[in-house]
Amino acid sequence: MIPIIDLLRIENSFGGGVLGVLRICNKAFCATLEPAEQDNAPNYSCIPAIQYVCGRVNSSRFGETFEVLYVPNRTHILFHKGNTSDDTTGCIILGSTWGKLSGNRKVINSGKTFNRFMDVMLDYHEFIFTIKEVY
């Protein structure tokens, strides 16, 4: 069975990014950070809150990961490691919790959390991914 994964966006801090909770089969898995909403602008904005399919890819920059497919007017939206919204060009950064770095929003323990996500997803090549805004 393909896992159902959703992202609950819980706070849009505008310039500081969008904070969320990634759930796997309705159980909280980790914290997320995306760039702020900027009308789906490529490389600058989080993606629209709708349902997608994600597929396993091998990124030249981030290695093996998952890409959010069929995003309107966008490509290369990945799940990956990072700390602040400056580390993403529209992608989804995974971390164990949120924090601040020089006054900016960040996620903590991103490397370990991303690796744990990939371990959980080891046997899957795709999944259904739904983004919901609850702020």
Plain-language structure description:
With 135 residues, this protein is mostly beta strands. It has a single domain, classed as L,D-transpeptidase catalytic domain-like. Helix content is 8%, strand content 49%. The protein has one helix and ten strands; from the N terminus they run E-E-E-E-E-E-E-E-E-H-E. Strand 2 and strand 3 form a beta hairpin. The longest helix has 11 residues. The model has no long low-confidence stretch (mean pLDDT 93).
- The class by helix and strand makeup works out as mainly beta
> Low-confidence stretches at least 5 residues in length (pLDDT < 50)?
none
Overall mean pLDDT: 93
Q: How would you write the strand order of the largest sheet?
A: 1-2-3-7-6-5-4-10
Tally of helical segments = 1
| Rg measurement, Å | 13 Å
What overall form do the CA principal axes indicate?
globular
H/E series, N to C? EEEEEEEEEHE
Q: What is the percentage of strand-forming residues?
A: over 45%
| Percent range of helical residues | under 10%
CATH topology: L,D-transpeptidase catalytic domain-like
Distance N to C terminus: 31 Å
- The total number of structural domains is 1
What composes the largest sheet? 8 strands, mixed, barrel
